[in-house]
Amino acid sequence: MEKTAMFSLLLLLCISFHAAAGSIGVNYGRIANNLPSAVTVLKLLKSQGIDRIKIYDTDPTVLRALGGSGIKVNVHLPNELLYSAARRPSFAFTWVQRNVATYYPQTQIEAIAVGNEVFVDPHNTTKYLVPAMQNVHAALVKYNLDAKIKISSPVALSALQSSYPSSSGSFRSELIEPVFRPMLQFLRQTGSYLMVNAYPFFAYEANSDVISLDYALFRENPGVVDSGNGLRYYSLFDAQIDAVFAALSALKYDDIGIVVSETGWPSKGDRSEIGATVENAASYNGNLVRRILTGGGTPLRPKAELTVFLFALFNENKKPGPLSERNYGLFYPNEQKVYDIPFTLEGLKGYSSGGSKPDTGGRRVSVPVAGGGTVSKSAVGQSWCVASRGVGRDKLQAALDYACGEGGADCRQIQPGSTCYDPNTIEAHASYAFNSYYQKNSRAMGSCDFEGAAYVVSQPPRFGKCEFPTKY
């Protein structure tokens, strides 16, 4: 397990190390009778640096409160309106006029979720989904808003026929021709993306005997190799998202991106809801925020910039179902945090979620595949080891001395007059020595730790003109 200090001051390095960084939003659900006013919620959002939210309606009080705030908003046309929006273009036009055009651009509406998990809707609204999306888009065109506001529809992972291994990802066969192909074509034509609701908690809860909790919570673990493509996954979240990417690829829609419209972990649950604890919720959401804001994409799509909406802003006391449904909140209704996690890069400074593993991409390994062949090794997912400046000079110096001494790292290049002597800083020299040790040990798990003084990155470090090797 990586030590808790390993992430200190990652912000200072991730800007240069990671080419693709995502963004974090929060779902603002309101199925409760004890929530603060929209104006109070706005103050809470701003105090936490949350600049993107998704709501499940178009409540005027909320949209007016957000006006002029600079916070980006996703609004929702609910399932019960799909029939009318699909059958009557005039209804879609009026809906957009009253619920979108009236508030834009003062309220920065960036997307409309048309329906939500329609394929599991008991009212059987699936056949109205794509026509409704098309009519809502036509209304945006009339208001000249189509280039500014995207349209999509959140789908649950139950829309997949296969999701394990990730490389076998495919959509349910009965939905492909009537829904997915026309919807994906619509998303392509309008430059939009697929919204996906992904909950590793559900998979872990149902399979805790075979799924590692560390794997579900982004913590240090040996990873799981996909037998189809040889990629190694270190988190269930990445595996789930890549299953959707694989499903898109199977239909030749590799150009369609993904926004994770919901994900989260409950802080409390019924006795049968394994893993629903405050500690696990803090670990999942805290590690996920760090994972997304420091970039790196997924093993299958390493350059993807994911936008992820955490579920949810508040515990909602009127939600039906098991106890967990009322305990996904990041905040209690009195605005106190259920647990402490950051939401911004600035907030990540000095933050420790207790033993998470930095994303290192997907390293290909030699594994059996169908037909008896093998997947060869490649440079995909190379990684480097660098110093954590925030642990202090003394700790870095002690770790540097160990690496260059007993550890056997090749430190010749950081001696005076050598290629990597400049910049002559403890961070640069320690990073070079740590990386030498890490690579000499074949990037073995735990070889980039130095008692919390180092961590792994997936982009080449940059210290002056010094080049960090990937093998010795």
Automatic annotation (TrEMBL):
Entry EC no(s): 3.2.1.39
Keyword Aminoacyl-tRNA synthetase listed: no
Record keyword Cell inner membrane present: no
Keywords annotated in UniProt: Cell membrane, Disulfide bond, Glycoprotein, Glycosidase, GPI-anchor, Hydrolase, Lipoprotein, Membrane, Plant defense, Signal
Catalytic reaction list: Hydrolysis of (1->3)-beta-D-glucosidic linkages in (1->3)-beta-D-glucans
Span of domain X8: 383-468
Family designation: Belongs to the glycosyl hydrolase 17 family.
Protein name: glucan endo-1,3-beta-D-glucosidase
First-level EC class: hydrolase
GO cellular component term of the entry, any: plasmodesma
Organism: Nepenthes gracilis (Slender pitcher plant)
MF terms in GO: glucan endo-1,3-beta-D-glucosidase activity
Cell compartment(s), UniProt: Cell membrane
Lineage: superkingdom: Eukaryota
PROSITE patterns noted in UniProt: GLYCOSYL_HYDROL_F17 (PS00587)
InterPro entries: GH, Glyco_hydro_17, Glyco_hydro_17_plant, X8
